[in-house]
UniProtKB/TrEMBL annotation:
Family: Belongs to the glutamate synthase family.
Entries under Pfam families matching the protein: Glu_synthase
Coiled coil: none
Classification lineage: Bacteria, Bacillati, Actinomycetota, Actinomycetes, Mycobacteriales
Name assigned to this protein: FMN-binding glutamate synthase family protein
Enzyme class: oxidoreductase
Key words of the record: Oxidoreductase
The UniProt record lists the keyword Oxidoreductase: yes
UniProt xrefs under PANTHER family: ARCHAEAL-TYPE GLUTAMATE SYNTHASE [NADPH]
Length: 534
């Protein structure tokens, strides 16, 4: 009897042991938040390729990010083997598909045959340089983390991103929710001003320049981004339910605790391009920082007027323009906005860039792109179209644990990334995930450099439309320049900027190991090579 009782208790004890182990480990937020149950996910994930072979979906059919794309981010973040074998499983001839053209001969020496992750790939342009801002600077990284506010992301996620920014030397955009203590982990910041002016508003919700000066002076803020719109919900204000407005969020945003916070759909501090440019100059004068705008692309009147004004007077101008694609992400948005309002990145970017290129103004602006650009091929096309830097949001979320459960709007994010629920957020270990994010960004930078070198240039900003063709889905192909109506010289910075960045990157030409075959540490192979989970 006693033996039987013991035997009956054994499975319970084993489960309790597993649960304890899951609760105490720090590597997987999912296992911490859903002890034992989460293991099923890992099991299914590990036999996923075999299952999918016969019954379920393909590696490329999931959206917004395919299994292959997520697997690439997860394995890069864990410094595991992020290679794929047996050739592409994409249907390259029957979908609109970018092809990057490698150079057979080139005098570009690869930065290193083994391509360490720690190669620096700084921005090609000095941010704020053309307008002589007091704190103009060269961005240390061509890859940076896009705006995601504290409120939409958990405190732990914000800490992980900011620590990652310090490790891999990229910047971390605060998003429109203000600057919290979680942002102060040593990483550089870009402060975003949204229509709610959180963190820089007076008691009536109006923009307050003095408060802005105070808040940006209180942290390592390198630049200021005025958000006009974002791709997933352009022209729509934000809404943070009162339940999420805890004391900390209320203090940081300058709003009342427990009350719903609605941010208007448009700015009240300016009503047209002239007023916007005046404000840009006032902010830049008061802070000394480069000031730019972020927007998705809809009607073109705004951009035409902006380019005209910058062309006319030369006394006012934005230091950078971040173009977000309609396919961009958000914490929450109505379906029609996410699906149908504003152009996808490439189309939107090309239209705006073209307006500035026609007026010879592209070198006066640092061009930043976002919307699924945290994947090497997408990023390369963006660089070929003329971006100088890319911002990544959801890909950074993958690196810190997101599994694309798409519950960000419910406050029940299972991995603790996009929630204010303390239990769920506690499963995310900021220290460990910061290294994963840093690994991912460094891997992406390295891949961008590798592809640039393969195409015969030393830096991604030197890629031009001539390096890319688009297969048109009907066994035809068109040069990138034709698809987006680019003229001969569009897509790269002017010769002075190119020479400067080329000279900078040449310093890697003579690094040890550049010219000879060297022994190097083998790639760490994942315990489960096909595992695509956080
Ligand atoms: C959870 C979440 C919160 C976001 N919050 C902001 C924000 O506060 N301000 C903003 O301009 N964009 C915000 N975005 C949009 C991103 O900054 C980015 O422009 C967009 O997701 C495209 O980049 P991606 O494809 O790399 O995700 C948010 C996106 C996500 C996923
Ligand atoms: S795991 Fe799901 S809910 Fe959490 S951040 Fe990712 S998509 Fe959003």
């Amino acid at each position: 009897m006693k033996k039987r009782t013991l035997a009956a208790l054994a499975p319970t004890a084993a489960l309790a042991g597993m649960a304890l182990q899951d609760l105490l480990q720090k590597e997987h937020a999912l296992r911490h938040n859903f002890p034992v149950i989460a293991r099923m996910r890992y099991l299914l994930e590990s036999i996923g390729p075999e299952l999918r072979q016969y019954i379920i979906t393909s590696n490329d059919s999931e959206r917004p990010f395919s299994r292959d794309q997520r697997r690439w981010v997860y394995t890069s973040a864990k410094k595991e083997n992020n290679y794929f074998s047996f050739g592409t499983d994409n249907d390259t001839e029957t979908a609109a598909y970018p092809i990057i053209k490698q150079a057979t001969f080139s005098d570009v020496v690869p930065a290193s045959p083994i391509h360490g992750r720690d190669i620096e790939v700084p921005g090609a342009k000095v941010l704020g340089g053309p307008r002589g801002r007091r704190h103009a600077f060269r961005p240390a990284s061509v890859v940076n983390v896009s705006a995601m506010s504290f409120g939409s992301l958990s405190p732990q996620a914000i800490e992980a991103i900011n620590k990652g920014a310090k490790i891999a030397d990229f910047w971390h955009n605060t998003g429109e929710g203000g600057l919290s203590d979680h942002h102060r982990q040593g990483g550089d910041l870009v402060y975003q001003i949204g229509t709610g002016y959180f963190g820089c508003r007076d008691e009536h919700g109006n923009f307050d320049l003095d408060r802005l000066v105070d808040v940006v002076g209180s942290g390592p803020v390198r630049a200021i981004e005025i958000k006009l719109s974002q791709g997933a919900k352009p022209g729509l204000g934000g809404h943070l339910p009162g339940a999420k407005v805890n004391a900390e969020i209320a203090r940081i945003r300058g709003v009342e605790q427990g009350k719903d916070v609605a941010s208007p759909s448009r700015h009240t501090a300016f009503r047209d391009v002239d007023e916007m440019l005046d404000l840009v100059e006032r902010i830049a004068d008061a802070t000394g920082l480069p000031v730019g705008i972020k927007s998705a692309v809809g009607e073109l009147d705004f951009w035409q007027t902006l380019a005209d004004r910058m062309d006319d007077d030369g006394q006012r101008g934005v230091d950078f323009i971040t173009i977000d694609g309609g396919e961009g992400g958000t914490g929450a948005a109505p379906l029609v906005f996410a699906d149908h309002v504003s152009f996808p990145f490439r189309m939107g970017f090309a239209r705006v860039y073209g307006l500035f290129a026609e007026r010879g103004l592209t070198d006066r602006v640092t061009w930043i792109g976002s919307a699924k650009l945290g994947l090497p091929a997408n990023a390369i096309v963006a660089f070929a179209l003329g971006v100088d830097l890319i911002n990544v949001a959801r890909e950074a979320m993958f690196a810190i644990g997101c599994i694309q459960a798409q519950k960000c709007h419910t406050d029940r994010c299972p991995t603790g990334v996009a929630t204010q629920n303390e239990w769920l957020a506690r499963g995310l270990d900021p220290e460990q995930k910061s290294h994963r994010l840093a690994n991912y960004v460094m891997t992406l930078r390295r891949d961008l450099l590798k592809v640039s070198e393969a195409a015969g240039v030393r830096h991604p900003a030197m890629l031009s439309p001539k390096h890319v063709e688009i297969l048109d889905g009907d066994r035809g192909h068109r040069p990138l320049a034709d698809v987006y109506g680019y003229q001969e010289w569009w897509g790269t910075p002017g010769p002075e900027i190119v020479d400067e960045i080329d000279a900078y990157m040449r310093r890697y030409d003579d690094l040890p190991g550049t010219h000879e075959v060297v022994e190097h540490e083998p790639l760490k192979v994942a315990a489960e090579p096909n595992q695509a989970t956080e």
